[in-house]
Amino acid sequence: MSELESRLTELGRELELPPAPDVAPAVLAGLERAPRRPSPWRLAVVAVAIVAIAIGAAFAVPQARSTILRWFHLRGVTVERVQTLPRAVERSSAAGLGRPLSRKDAERVVGFRLALPPLPRGESQVVYVLDDALATVLVKSEGRPAMLSEFRAPGFDVFKKSAAGKTVIESVQVNGREGLWLEGGPHTLTYIDRSGRFRERTVLIHGNVLFWERDGLTLRLEGHLTKREALEIARNTR
Amino acid sequence: MDRPLDDAELVERAKRGDLRAWETVVREYQGIAFRTAYLLSGSAADAEEAAQDGFVKAYRALGRFRRGAPLRPWLLRIVANEARNSRRSAGRREQLALRAAAADRPGDAVPSPEAALLAGESKTRLLEAVNRLSEEHRLAIACRYFLELSEDETAAALGVRRGTVKSRLARALARLREELGEEEP
Q1: Do A28 and B23 count as a contact with CB atoms less than 8 A apart?
Q2: What CATH number has the domain bearing residue B15?
Q3: Fewest CB within 10 angstroms: A86, A160, B4, B146, which?
Q4: Residues forming a β-bridge with B100
């Protein structure tokens, strides 16, 4: 530290600052009046947690309690790298995606405008809505089906970490915004529903997944797509 | 005797709904949170509200707190954000002028009158020079040296990257040396 920096530090200790009040009683009173869940902003939140894993470790110690090894965050999304996957059911095609609605009805239910890739001329869009919060559409790339899901995410900071392992977790950019690409191993999906309760609806996913943000929404594309194909769909989703 | 719980343990307990654990966190960090908010908002009342609201919001956001991450910069970021918002919504533009306390601190050695006069003049000049800095430079200096925040904490409080903090500090220090007629170290 230079002499000037030392003098500044010394000066800081002599500054006239108002005494810090004790805010603990008011904080606790506020929290007791309005418990952590649900709270006003959480009511509109659906957060998705993806648990990614290396296949070998998953089946080597199936009964072991999952140890969280790494975390990845995107707006409204937590990606954890764990030793063992939570119990999950296999999912097929559109099962468990919610009730099928028209685009207009789906937007009214979830309360936001859906961002969708362009539809082939003459086709109408079916939107599956789960818990009035998670909207999913089926899209096709090179003839292969994929699922695009979206939800309104809370406005929190983005945290990222790199990780090694059979499931690649990679930061990507989609239209200038942060995204995450997950490729390789199986992972499970759980989510928090509209009332803020954590739902243990855990499904096993074998495809690759791209997460990205757009206009306060978090979007999730899942399927047997290459990264290039996924990014192309994401860029055309408006 | 029970050992005090560390931040990670307190956070884990608070995540499970233990408000007493969160109270311990609030009492540990409310001082630095309030002082940071005061520098940013320029008002003791706003700083108190920012600290209070910040700790409430932080508790509710614990689900997104990264396990193993340092707690203090995360809390400072949330409280500082509240303080900036309150300043913005109040439409205040004037800078907070920092003043040195008049009284000596208890326990200070009693200097000779000449030494006290010289030291006092030097500090007054330094403080006046800090107060003349641009707001972003003044806040960087205030967070880093007056509040003795780390570079990461300063970045969190100011809502900028660590590299931005480094460059602002370098420019602010150079400006202060220029104002005080001092040589680069």
Answers
A1: yes
A2: 1.10.1740.10
A3: B4
A4: A15
How many structural domains comprise chain B?
Answer: 2
Q: What is the pLDDT of residues A14-65, one digit of tens each?
A: 887 888 889 998 888 888 765 544 333 332 223 333 333 222 222 222 222 3
Nearest residue, CB atoms, A16 vs list B51, B100, B176: B100
| Whole-number Cα distances in Å, A101 to A44, A126, A219 | 20, 6, 19
Task: Determine if the peptide bond prior to A117 is cis (ω within 30°).
Answer: no
Q: Which residues pair with A137 in a beta bridge?
A: A148
Number of Cβ within a 10 Å radius of residue B25:
24
> Which A positions 3-22 lie with beta carbon below 8 A of chain B?
3-5, 7-9, 11-18, 20-22
Complex confidence, ipTM:
0.85
Smallest Cα distance from B2 to chain A, Å: 22
Residue A91 CA neighbour count, 13 Å, CB half: 23
For testing contact with chain B, the best of A14, A74, A80, A199 (most B CBs within 10 A): A14
Count of alpha carbons within 13 Å of A34, Cβ hemisphere only?
A: 14
Q: How far apart are CA A165 and CA A184, in angstroms?
A: 9
Does the residue B15 lie in any domain? yes
Q: Does A39 touch chain B (CB under 8 A)?
A: yes
A166-181 residue pLDDT tens? 667 777 888 888 788 8
Quick one: chain B helix, strand, coil %, rounded to 5? 70, 0, 30
